[in-house]
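Re-run with default settings, no changes from the original entry. Doing this only to confirm the output is reproducible before filing.
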Amino acid sequence: MNFVQPTPGTDNHPVVVTRVSPTQWHAVEDDLTVGRGVASRRPDGRLFVSVDAWHGAVFDRVADAMLTDLSTPLYTLVDETDHDSRSAWERAGFTTARREWGYLVPTDPRTTGLASVRPPSGVTVVAAGEAEEEPLRALDRVVRDEVEATVGWRTMPAEVLPRPAGTTVLDPSKHAVARHGHEYVGLVRVAPLTRQPRIGLIAVRADRQRRGIARALLAHALGSLHMSGTASAWAEVDESNAAATALFESSGARRAACTLELVRR
């Protein structure tokens, strides 16, 4: 256990921050837990931290303990509208690394304008659950290598980041693919979450881009959700990804949230 020097509490009781495990810290005041800190390593190797505390002084003490015990760089996520949390992390030396838009995406073709969208000549869309796993995995590796060579996977939502060895966990039931001849050239991943399905990734091989494949994949995914009775889906897009932003906004999606990724180096 790693004890941090006590700090005055909210009722004149000292607050003691204790590292209770390699990834957890507790702040205790008068035998009551008044704050917690958690560190978690993402699949790409980055270490993300979070603090849950009622009072700013407790937040600062827990954050200080974590920063003392952990090596940088460290990352965290905050809602852009949560000014208190953002200020607290900035006091701890974190700065904004990137911004991610959260989109509410309608599925009704009358709203999206995608009813008449079809794949380009020679391309067909293979529905989710019907794609062959090995060609899908091969496409996944190609797309990831191409993205890493350009904008980098750090700009992608955490759920689609590669494992340290470069492999990924693929579930064909969540992926529809675009096929040209015998090759898979694009994919869309939809996680069928209970409250609202999430479009986790739309990607097309670099040599097949700008042909309307991504738009056809989105049309297919949203059309399938609409037929199943789902009114809307959720998607996250990095602010710097102009192509994805244009794709979703031209399909009737509206910005409903904004998440900031903060870093301390």
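The helical segments are 56-69, 83-91, 109-112, 133-148, 213-227, 242-249. Residues 133-148 form the longest helix (16 residues).
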